[in-house]
Amino acid sequence: MLPSLYLSVKFTFWLILQDLVYRGSMQSHLECARAYNSGIEKIIITGGSLTDSREALQLASADERLYITVGCHPTRSQEFEQLQPGSSGDGYFQELLSMITSNPGKVVAIGECELDCDRLQFCPKEVQLKYFEKQLLLAEKTGLPLFLHCRNSFRDFIDVMKRNRAAFNGGVIHSFDGTLEEARDAVNFGLYIGLNVCSLKSAQNLDVVKSIPIESILLETDAPWCEIRPSHASAGLVSTHFPCQNKDKWEPGMSVNGREIMGHSPTMFCLCK
């Protein structure tokens, strides 16, 4: 089960802080304003590490419509041990837990955590597995839902979740691009399916999306990533277009080439029907 924040808004969008073009810039504030003017009521800023989560909290503290997740992205799981070399990651874990418990109402989910076997060059699989399970303890201690990142690792993911079923109370697999069987397994496990353009790249993706129960879908931007490209199967179904410029020539009122823009994304999700 997810907190009422997820269920009471027209659209809840995830915002990623990893692009310096957006972080703390005038553009980020204008994009939020555009989103609010388009009817978006709340925005969740994703924490991909301890540092990211702190920066997300600082930004969210200035706006009651902004919320955050706290956690460590699978490709950065080695940070658990880098904070205190030779440790089992307890210090990093306690820092995450303290941030969550000290900011009730602002922190609404644990993550972005889970597994990414497409990017093992950044972090070995065994390290990802170890600290994914450790982050499930955050969910158990706080009662917060999970914000999950799953790339080419669904069977390992389900095995971990089965071993820790009592530790968590719902969540969402964001940016879902898996098979219909995987979507059904996730829904049967009590999870929501987060859809963005990564979920709409191929004809097979579109068939999967159309088969997911509407009550199990959460819509997201994953901004500033995941724009619709001409090569995507969904591109021909888009009827709305917005003026764009390259980011080095950006000016207020324009979108940025190669970027997902908050406030423009709702038109895309007619593709999911």
Output the keywords:
globular; 273 residues; two-stranded parallel sheet; 8-stranded parallel sheet; 17% strand
Sheet with the most strands? 8 strands, parallel
Helix content: 25-40%
**Basic shape:** globular
What's the overall average pLDDT, rounded?
Answer: 81
Strand order of the largest sheet: 1-2-3-4-5-6-7-8
Strand runs, count:
10
- Specify the number of helices: 9
Spans of at least 5 consecutive residues whose pLDDT stays below 50 are 1-24, 265-273
In whole angstroms, the N-to-C terminal distance is 24 Å
Spell out the helices and strands N to C. Answer: HEHEHEHHEHEHEHEHEEE
Rg (C-alpha, Å)? 18 Å
Helical/strand content category: alpha/beta
Strand portion: 15-25%
What is the topological layout?
Elements: H1 4-7, E1 12-16, H2 26-37, E2 42-46, H3 50-60, E3 66-70, H4 79-82, H5 90-101, E4 107-116, H6 125-142, E5 146-151, H7 154-163, E6 171-174, H8 180-188, E7 191-195, H9 203-211, E8 217-219, E9 244-245, E10 255-256
Helix pairs in contact: 5-6
How would you describe what is shown here?
This protein is of the alpha/beta class and 273 residues long. It is built from nine helices and ten strands. The chain has an eight-stranded parallel sheet. It has a two-stranded parallel ribbon with strand order 9-10. Strand 4, helix 6 and strand 5 (146-151) form a beta-alpha-beta unit. Helix 5 (90-101) packs parallel to helix 6 (125-142). It is globular. It starts with a helix and ends in a 17-residue tail after the last strand.
